[in-house]
Amino acid sequence: MIHRIPRPPRQKTRPGTTSVRAVLLALVLGFGANSCKPVGVTQAEPAPAPPSIPSLEQGRLPPVLESEAESVLDEARQFLATSSFAEARDAARRVIQHYAGARGSGEALSIQAQAALALGDTGEAIEASAHFLDLLETLHPEFPGAALLYATALAEDGDFSGSLSALLLIPAGASAEVLDPGVELLREVSGSLAIDDLRDLTNAMELGHPFRGVLATELAVSLFLGGEEGEARAWAESALSGNLHPRERERCSAILEGNLEEVLGQPLTLGAILPRSGVSPGLMEYSDWVLEGIQVAVEEYQGELRRPIRLEVADNQGSPSLTREAVGNLERMDAVGAIGPLNQSLLVEGADARRTGFPLISPFAPLPPEDAEGVLSLSGPDPGGAEVVARYAWDLGLERVVILRPRTQEASLDSRAFQEAFVGFGGIVPREVVYDSGATFFQAEFDEVGSVLPDGLFLPLTAPDIQLLAPQFTYYGLDTLGIQLLGTDEWTDDGVVLEVDSRHTDGVIASTTRQSQDETEAFRRFRLRYEALFQRSLRSEIPAYGYDAAVLILEGLRESPRTSADLLRAMRRIQDFPGATGHLTVEGDRIRRVPQLVRIQDHELIYISSHLH
Questions:
Q1: Among the listed residues 483, 442, 480, 482, the one whose alpha carbon sits nearest the alpha carbon of residue 461
Q2: Residue closest to 460 by CA, chosen among 528, 411, 499
Q3: How confident is the model at residue 3 (pLDDT cuts 50, 70, 90)?
Q4: Which of 205, 353, 449, 608 could form a disulfide with 324, with the two C-beta atoms 3.0–4.6 Å apart?
Q5: Which runs of E-coded beta strand occur in 141-213?
C-alpha cells in the first residue's frame, strides 16, 4: 500500500519557512508517549484497550514464544518511554527479527521508527514508519499517528514534499494529539510546494479540513511575497472566513493590512560597501574599523526593531565598476540602505548606480555628489561649525573679519555660512580672498589681508593647506598685527595640532565635532558595546563613524518605512541624536553635528564651549 504516498522531487522552500528540527523532536517524544506506554505505570481509571495492531507476519506462535515476544515488546516500550533510544531500537529489532508472527508485533516498527528518528537515523526511521503505516487500514485508530510519524521522518530527511503527501493522509476527524503537531509540521513543509501546486492542493481540499486554513494562508503569504497582492488578499479573506489558528489569522490579517513583512520577521538587509581586498594595508585597516562600528550598531538594534537585521558586506576593492556592481546586488536583495563607499569618487559611482534611491551614507567622503537624493556623509560640509565660530568671533568683540579660502565647494559653503552669520550679528566681512586649490605660496594673499587690517581672519582650510599656510602667516609677519585666527574642523586634525609648530597654531579658535577631553555619554556607551562585542579595547575613533552611519539608517527604520522614500523622510526627522561622533541632525541630505569650540594651545585642544548658541 505504500504506493499511495507519492514522494515528489525535493524543491526549494519559499521565503518565510523555518527549520523543522525542533518540531520533529517534540513530535517524536509526543508520539512515543501517546503510543507506547511503559510497563508498570498505573492509572486511576484504565482506558479501554485499543484495537490490536496487526502482526508483521501471518500465523501464530507457540504460547512460550508469544510470551517472550510480549516481554521484549514491553522492554522496547519501557526504553522508549525513558528516552533510552538505542536500547529501544535494539529491542524493537529483536521483535521484528525473531517474533514477527507474534500478536501486535507491528508495534515494534513504530518503536523502531521513533527511536531511530531520535538517534538521527532518518533512513531507518522512514523505512520503519512506512512499513508500519502500510500495516494499518485507514480507519484503524493508530493510522493518523502512523501517518504523522512517517511525515515526520520524511521531513527530518529533508523530503518536505513527501512529508506533505504523508500529512494529507491524516483524516479531518483525527484527535487533537495528532492534528495539533500535524499543523505545526504542515506549516514547515508546505513551503516545498510551488505556488501553482499549492493553489491546486488548497482548492482540492475539503473546506472543513483543519489543514486547509494552513495551506490557504501559506498560499496567500507566497502570493503576497511574490508581488501578487490582489490574489493574496482574496485568499487571505477566504481563509479568515473559516476556522483559523491564531498564527494563520495574524498572517492573513497582516496581508490585508499590508504589514506582512513585520509579522513574518523577515530580516532587513543593511549593506556595507567597503574595500576588503586589493587595496593598501592602511585603507584595509580603515575599512576593518568602519565595519566593526557597523557591526556594533547592528548588534545594538537587533531585537529593537520589529524585524531582524542582516548585514551584507560587499567588497568593492576600491574599484568604480565593483562599487556599481555592489549597489546593484544590494538593491536586488532589497537592502534598506548601505554604508560606504569611503571616498568621494566611489560615492559618486555608487550614487549614480542606484535604481531605487536607497540611502548611501559614507563615513569619510568629503562631499556627497550634488543632486543625489539620499546620499550623505558624516564628513561632508557642515555649516554649523562656521556659524558657531562666527558667533564666538562677535562675542569676542571682533568687528571686521576677512575670509581667506581655497577655490573649493567645501570652503565656499563654510565661507558663506560664516559670512551670513557674522553679518547677521552686526559684523563686517570687508573682503574674501580666494586662492586656487593646490597653491603652496601665499605672500600675495597675505599682503591683501594685511592691507585691510582686520580684527580676525577666518580660514576654512583643509589640513594639508593649513600645514603649508600657517607657517607663512608667521613668516610674513601677520602674527604681529593682532589678527585673531579662526578656523573650522580641519584645524583640529592631529596632523595640524600635533605636527605643526605651536608658534603657528597657538591661540587659533576653531570649531570641532571631535570628542572633548572627557568622553561623552554616547561615546562611552559605544565604547562599552564595542569592547563587549569584540573582547578588546577600542583603539581608534574610526569605528565610531561606521557606527553612526549605520545608526542613522537603523534609527530611521524604527518608523517601519515601506519604501526608500519613506526611510529618507524618517531619517530627515532625526534631530540632535546622541551619536558616538557627536549629536547628529539630518537636514535634507546633510548630516550636521553640534560643534564645540576649542583653542589650540601647546599642541592641545582646549575646549572653551560645547554649545551652539
A1: 442
A2: 411
A3: very low
A4: 353
A5: none
Query: Is the Cβ–Cβ distance between 138 and 10 less than 8 Å?
Result: no
432-435 and 604-609 strand pairing: unpaired
Q: Which pLDDT value is given to residue 386?
A: 92
State the cell numbers at 80: 522508549
- Of 150, 71, 162, the closest CA to residue 113 belongs to 150
27: which strand partners?
A: none
Confidence of residue 515 (pLDDT cuts 50, 70, 90): low
End-to-end CA distance of the chain: 86
Residue with cell 577631553: 517
Q: How far apart are CA 1 and CA 169, in angstroms?
A: 13
Distance from C-alpha of 253 to C-alpha of 237, rounded to nearest angstrom: 8
Cα gap 252→260, rounded to integer Å: 8
Beta bridge partners of 339: 272, 361
Pairwise CA distance, residues 365 & 46, whole Å? 78
Q: Where do the H-state alpha helices sit in 339-404?
A: 344-353, 383-395
The C-alpha atoms of residue 4 and residue 199 are separated, in whole angstroms, by 21
Q: What pLDDT sits at residue 40?
A: 37
Residues 144 and 132: beta-carbon distance below 8 Å: no
Residue with cell 582646549: 606
Give the whole-angstrom CA distance, residue 159 versus residue 162. Answer: 5
| Identity of the residue numbered 75 | E
- Distance in angstroms (rounded) separating the CA atoms of residues 335 and 34: 47
Q: Are 550 and 339 in contact (CB under 8 A)?
A: yes
CA–CA distance, 446 with 376 (Å, rounded to integer) = 35
Q: Are 349 and 296 in contact (CB under 8 A)?
A: no
User: Residue 538's pLDDT is what?
Assistant: 94
**Dihedral of CA 576/578/582/587: which sign?**
negative
Cell reading at 51: 484495537
Give the C-alpha separation, 115 to 117, whole Å: 5
Q: Can you read off the three cell numbers belonging to residue 376?
A: 550623505
At 546-588, the pLDDT tens digits run 999 999 999 999 877 878 888 998 899 999 899 998 889 998 8
Cell 562611552 locates to 524
Candidates 198, 197, 201, 168; CA nearest to 182 is 168
Of 243, 181, 174, 255, the residue nearest 218 (C-alpha):
255
Closest CA to 125 of 170, 74, 89: 89
Cell of 236: 487571505
Distance between CA 262 and CA 557 in Å, rounded?
A: 12
* Gyration radius of the chain's alpha carbons: 36
Average of pLDDT values for 95-103?
91
Query: In the beta sheet, which residues pair with residue 268?
Result: 309
Distance separating alpha carbons of residues 307 and 334, to the nearest angstrom: 14
C-alpha span between 606 and 552 (Å, rounded):
30
CB atoms within 10 A of CB 574: 17
